[in-house]
Write the structure tokens for this entry.
Amino acid sequence: MRSVEAFRDLQSEATEWRRYLHRNPELDSRLQNTARFVAETLASFGINHIETGIAETGIVALIHGEGGDGPTIGLRADMDALPILEASNKPWSSETPGKMHGCGHDGHTAMLLGAAKYLANSRKFKGCVALIFQPAEEVLPSGALRMIQEGVMDRFGISQVFSMHNTPGMEVGKFGICHGAILASLDEFDLVVTGKGGHAAKPHETVDPIVIAAQIILGLQTLVSRGTDPLEGLVISVTKLSAGTAYNIVPGQAELAGTVRTFSSGLRDFAERQILASAQGIARGFGADVELTYRRDCPVTLNHIHETDLAIKAARNLVGASSVDDKMRPRMGSEDFAYMLEERPGALIFIGNGSSAALHNPAYDFNDEALPYGIGYWVNLVETALAA
Ligand code: NI
């Protein structure tokens, strides 16, 4: 177990990788240059088992320890950027207008590369480490889900999976994690209310979908306040509402759309079921009808108990117990790493990015001072989970 000082040597090289990736952002699964750079850098460390082209541009590389037989654990970094016009004014800003690393996946990739270099050299662990470089975290279809569907868990014999995400507003050198749900699930819905259009001066001859939509919206808020345990978190937000074309016409249809976030898979099922039941009940009561399209995106990111304990231990040994918040409040954001945690036990940890701009903000930049902490966390985690 090592403190962060053991990883300072890697900082300048990791900073170069990070800034190269930052200058050259790519979107979704189309990460040809990024993937080529990652594969070539891994090969330069003497890693010879590198499989590319998984879920288009995903990579899995294996490093075997010298401590004998043991399980294989997966360490996952995401690699994709966002369609944002960068305004960080950093010398290493994006060279492609309209694309930027606005979520720090350049830093995540650089930290895992740094850990790969260290582990390929030291190999002080048993079993095997599978480095998972994932495309398409920010878009649908999810890169994590696609890598799973292409069989990475079984093919590489991965028994546990871990990931790390930077977080602005947390000091560099600090970590945050919690047992159980750490990030919310993310679903979206579209709801079409079909009534009967007509003259606005003769409302009794119409079935007004706007008035019905208004009642449906309030009904959905009541689902949360009256239908769920107040100590559990559920967000149902209607974020789009459109209907009508003129002052004197009652339209025939109204369209609503929105999002559902929760930390409980039971509440997720509840939301999908009850949004339809509630909207349908209200609409039918007024002689209208509804059509619901409900899309499940990311599941709840659920940290498993034993693996979370391992992550806490690895972080504490790096930075000391007082710099690891092991009871971090869960966040309402979501992460497609959740799919990997449905397949294998594991844990996601947050690493402090200092006082940077927020994630997905045009002024955001990953903090290179965090690199040795991230690298050190990965190495300590491997040497804890796969102690020889
Ligand atoms: Ni992200």
